[in-house]
Amino acid sequence: MRPESSPMEIDQTDRRPAALGDLRILPDEILCSILTYLTPRDVARLSCVSSVMYILCNEEPLWMSLCIDIADRQLQYKGSWKRTALDQLNVTFENNESCQKPLHFNGFNSLFLYRRLYRCYTSLNGFYYDTGNVERAKNLSIDEFRDKYDGQKPVLIGGLADTWPARTTWTTEELLKKYGDTAFKLSQRSRHKIRMKLKDYVSYMKVQHDEDPLYIFDEKFGEAAPELLKEYTVPNMFKEDFFDVLDMDQRPSFRWLIMGPERSGASWHVDPSLTSAWNTLLCGRKRWALYPPGRVPLGVTVHVNEEDGDVNIDSPSSLQWWLDFYPLLAEEDKPIECTQLPGETIFVPSGWWHCVLNLETTVAVTQNFVNSKNFEFVCLDMAPGYRHKGVCRAGLLALDDISIEDVRKNMLSLESGLSCSDLSRKDKRIRVDQPRSSEDGSTIDGVSKGIDLTEVEFSYDINFLAMFLDKEQDHYTSLWSSSNSIGQREMREWLSKLWVEKTETRDLIWKGACLALNADRWYAHATEICTFHGLPLPTDDERLPVGTGSNPVYLVGDNVIKILVEEGLEACLHSLGTELEFYSSLQKMNSPLRNHIPNVLSSGILFIENGLCKVQCWDGKGIPKVIANFRPLVEHEQADYPFGLWSKRQLDYRKAGMSLAELVSTGSGTTICPYVITQRCKGKIYAQIRDSISWEDTLNLASFLGEQMRNLHLVPCPALNDLTLLETQQKAVPTANGNLEDDEDKICVPAEWSLFLKTLNRKKKDVCDRLTK
Fold it and tell me: Would you tell me the Gene Ontology cellular component terms (predicted)?
């Protein structure tokens, strides 16, 4: 930047060029955005550079962003966000009077700053929308709701909260009396969970003039104030919730207390995991705008990460959208709208886009749920991959670089049961900035489309959406999206509990399990293994894999079938090889440990050949014919167990230098799966009986396990045959930083320790990569 010229030297009407120097080419919006990445101290220093920088660096929205970013404790608003931020930094002023007199400069105009200032002080008295086109209903029966609205369209329902104590007690005045010192979570995104005592928040609401005010959006309000849960009840039509089978500490966030002032609200979004929601307003008024699934609102950007399917939505604040984008919409492109009044409950179906603006101070409660109408959509959204997630939210916009002919062919292949894995998309970023016309002059959902929608029409139908799943991707080992409401292991446990506790809906649960976990594929494999070995086929109770591990495990009668798929074929072969080698060692030395572990009944390799599923027995010895093409991977072909302990150690050496992305890629789906069949152990796991067994039985169990641990350590390490560990150690091994270690003098620990340390270094690097990302 060049130094700003003195007003005495130049009679300028616009001070911006001289005050910003080379930065003058950047619009004010970009400059203000850049400032949010600086520290408060750097912003304070920059404000001294020039008059325009002084103006930009003293904007309240900037200091609000800086304050939220550094907040690491309960907030207490100090009348302005700059003072609140400085309070967070424990900065005090020696001369308060001088700090209350901001400087003023003529000759500077900014439409961007003016619009932001207007949003900060605008009144919403005229925003009431009394001709809304969302249907209103009262005395709605459960059957009427399911037939007409559930999974189909929004509805405003009156009378559901008439008998709630919350109808009269959930006002800011009444809540303040009882919960003034209770801290609640705020809505703003931050590195920390920002909380504010209710009395401080109410004080903030009364004096704030923020463009996008903070509002309470707390999913843990029931833990912070348990009495609040007794003041409302879930309406009967929303009581079916498949997440009910999970304990409270296992189920994802599902209920929120919402409180906010005028101008606050929720920007455009689709509810997590395509769940449905109900929202009951206790005081105040809310304006709602909604679009059906697949229709991205004007001004919204949807980005779906190609690696893990994580979905990010970039949207203007609700107030900014109504002021800046809503007026641009043609009448036919406007959303479904309504104004929610106190006591009314709005239902938002799965996949619907919605935006909410508080017209005055409001208090509400909302819950998300999974029922029989949206269960398959939730399971579909949980499935690994990105393409289907984009289509579920952005509709055909997610396919903007695929010809209509390709889409049509894939629809035909879907009907014929063929794979549609060739469906691909290079650009996962869907941007809607302004309404644009198609070649014939018509608009399509307010955005331009390069394909002929007369050939294919988006449908929020589970069969249509499932077409965009990556059929070749193994859902047991593929990377799970971080935006999913529950993890992969929790998903398996959830489906297992549903299978046991909701037997009347097993057909539906099976469809969901096939979408999320490829349950049909693994059940077919388990059935093939049973047929090959003459075992009874899985019963209806045994159709789903059990446990939370990454390998499908089936309990079939008195047998346990474990199909190894985690981390790819090579890792699976070594997993089975070392396990079989261990059992052999127990038998050779007649270890008493063998009396307390399951007997191995059989083992082998399942593979696909010419489209048919086949099985080949393998006891861990020799090289199976089916993996002849993978023989270069085998280091110890002459050993009794070529995929045993020492070969696995060499694999660990190679993996110690692999990145997380490489490890994930090695676990991609394979058509060759080792398996093992063991005898089923009767009884319950300790976690299930921990609270019910006596202290004496617990001590006896600990003593027994200690004895078995000693027996385990007495099992000798398998012989190395003609290879030596030194030869293994001398091979170049990547260090933690990814470089090859060439200086052997630096290796001054036993070879076994070196392997252990390098494995830990690799894990450390993986953790660092994840945290950095």
Answer: cytoplasm; nucleus
* Contact predicate 384/480, CB 8 Å: yes
- The answer to whether residue 3 sits within a structural domain is no
Q: Which of 399, 404, 445 is nearest to 295 (CA)?
A: 445
Neighbours of 653 (CB within 10 A): 20
CA 221 – CA 125 distance, rounded (Å): 30
Q: Name 28's bridge partners.
A: none
With beta carbons less than 8 A apart as the criterion, state whether 644 and 618 touch.
no
Shared-domain flag, residues 51 and 138: no
Within a domain: 508: no
CB 507 within 8 A of CB 516: no
Total domains present in the chain: 4
Q: Is 152 among the domain residues?
A: yes
Residue-wise pLDDT for 295-309, tens only, equals 999 999 999 888 778
Q: In this structure, are 204 and 349 located in the same domain?
A: yes
Determine the structural domain holding residue 710 and report its residue range: 564-758
DSSP state of 234: -
pLDDT of residue 689: 86
Is residue 97 domain-shared with residue 148, that is, in the same domain? no
pLDDT at 555 over 50: yes
Residue 119 per-residue DSSP state: H
Does 475 or 631 have the greater pLDDT score? 475
Tell me: pLDDT of 136 over 50: yes
Same domain, 90 and 153: no
631 vs 636: CA distance, rounded Å: 10
Helix, strand, or coil (residue 41): helix
Q: How many residues does the chain have?
A: 773
Q: What is the pTM of this model?
A: 0.82
Query: What distance in Å separates the CA atoms of residue 436 and residue 443, rounded to the nearest whole number?
Result: 7
> Across 415-518, where does the E strand assignment appear?
429-431
Say which range, 205-214, 366-375, 562-571, 744-753, has the weakest mean pLDDT: 744-753
- Provide the token pair at 588: 């050779």
DSSP string over 298-322:
TT-EEEE-TTT--EEEE---HHHII
Angle between helices 506-517 and 375-382 (to 10 degrees): 20
Interatomic CA distance for residues 137 and 115, integer angstroms = 39
Of 122, 143, 169, the domain-final residue: 122
* Helix or strand (DSSP H, E) at 521: helix 519-533
Cα–Cα dist 731/724, whole Å: 12
- The DSSP symbol for 538 reads P
As a whole number of angstroms, the distance between CA 335 and CA 320 comes to 16
Query: Domain of 50: which CATH number?
Result: 1.20.1280
Position 497 pLDDT exceeds 80: yes
CB 382 within 8 A of CB 252: no
Buried b (16+ CB within 10 A) or exposed e, 365-395: bbbbbbbebbbbbbbbbbbbbbbbbbbbbbb
Tokens of 387: 């393409």
Residue pair 650/629 in contact by the 8 Å Cβ criterion: no
Cα–Cα distance for residue pair 604/526, rounded to 1 Å: 12
Q: Which two tokens stand for residue 225?
A: 């104030």
Band (pLDDT 50/70/90 cuts) for residue 437 is very low
Model pLDDT for residues 735-755, shown as the tens digit of each residue: 434 443 444 445 566 665 766
Q: Within this chain, do residues 176 and 210 fall inside the same structural domain, yes or no?
A: yes
Q: Alpha-carbon distance 604 to 562, whole Å?
A: 11
> What confidence category does residue 424 fall into, taking pLDDT thresholds of 50, 70 and 90?
very low
